[in-house]
Amino acid sequence: MFDCIILGVVLEKALTGYDIKKEIESKIGNFYKVSHGRLYPTLKKLADKSFLTMNEQMQGGRQKKYYKATEAGKAMFFEWLSSPVDPNAGVEAQLVHIFFYGKLSKEIRDKQLQEYEFLIQQQVRQLEAISKKIPSDGMDDEDYFETSILFFGIQSAHNSLRWLKHIKNQKPFSLFLNENEE
Amino acid sequence: MFDCIILGVVLEKALTGYDIKKEIESKIGNFYKVSHGRLYPTLKKLADKSFLTMNEQMQGGRQKKYYKATEAGKAMFFEWLSSPVDPNAGVEAQLVHIFFYGKLSKEIRDKQLQEYEFLIQQQVRQLEAISKKIPSDGMDDEDYFETSILFFGIQSAHNSLRWLKHIKNQKPFSLFLNENEE
DNA sequence: GATTCCATGTAAATGGTTACATGATTCT
DNA sequence: AGAATCATGTAACCATTTACATGGAATC
User: Fold this and answer.
1) Which of the residues A149, A177, B11, B52 has an alpha carbon 20 to 30 A from that of B163?
2) Total-model pTM
3) Is A11 part of the contact surface with chain B (CB cutoff 8 Å)?
4) pLDDT at A180 over 60
5) Which of residues 65-124 of A touch B (CB under 8 A)?
């Protein structure tokens, strides 16, 4: 995945490793972490494999290496983006995909979103089935907090569904948060 | 963290590695994965370090090893559980803690929950500040999907807050999901 | 003149998955 | 009889973090 994220940010514009890291951190840094000790070797690897071109420049006495996706790199990126996300991977993997969905054709994008929605619906059903077996009364502390994370999961799934419905229709986000209290 | 999760499930009852895996998977398997290739060496390590006792038994021709936390193991577990969660770690780390909070004194538990609430409130403010700078009109596909994950984050944070308020007061979960549509 | 930011890289150590390897029991 | 589940372990390989290492530019 990491490889493809990098490719995704340098599809059109050439950037330095430093800038790529900044870009990723600012956009998806909330749930996806990059260390520079991993980034630079990966850039080298991708350039060696000709998924990236590297353009070295001296700018104001500073050594800078600009990377940009090659045709092979773009092909790899789009193949990755078009493939369904492993349901076993966390939410993050799915979010990373969706982050790039604007680059994808509406057909494939809609299909993937549909599939993801279906997956979460399944999850909701499964989790709610478990929750219904749990007596909500006479729970001691231990049971209460163990159970709490189940309800967190159910709520999260419901909210993913609401959000998915929204973005499937590409509705403006100004309408999105109004229902939230607090 | 893995060490402490193991300790947490064998605080009172002795279990086999196989059962420990099952237990973890059934309770937090939705966001925390265990491989047995990691589990068994870890159990051995914890037993070597005297955080676990190991009790070998032959049950119906089957080789079984029962593990249970020692006093040192319990101490380690509670030290971990009582310490604040690294804000840089993902939600999962926090959820794992909360899963065990029933074992913690109300004082420390409330303090940790309070701290976590504060952290998310900060996050909400930060994310909402970013979102306010974004013009919601005239967005192309590319911007739309990039932005969408920001709103997912904001929504998730709001929902964490709602959930946290609920469990801070230990309100019954029967009241919890009613506000969810769909 | 010191600190922060820009900019890149390597390597040791750790962390973790996957595949290999084995064998009994229980269910169909 | 064959499949699924119970039950444990090792080791090669892969992935990742952290620390080490360096130096110029900009800001205060």
Assistant:
1) B11
2) 0.93
3) no
4) no
5) 90, 92, 95, 98-103
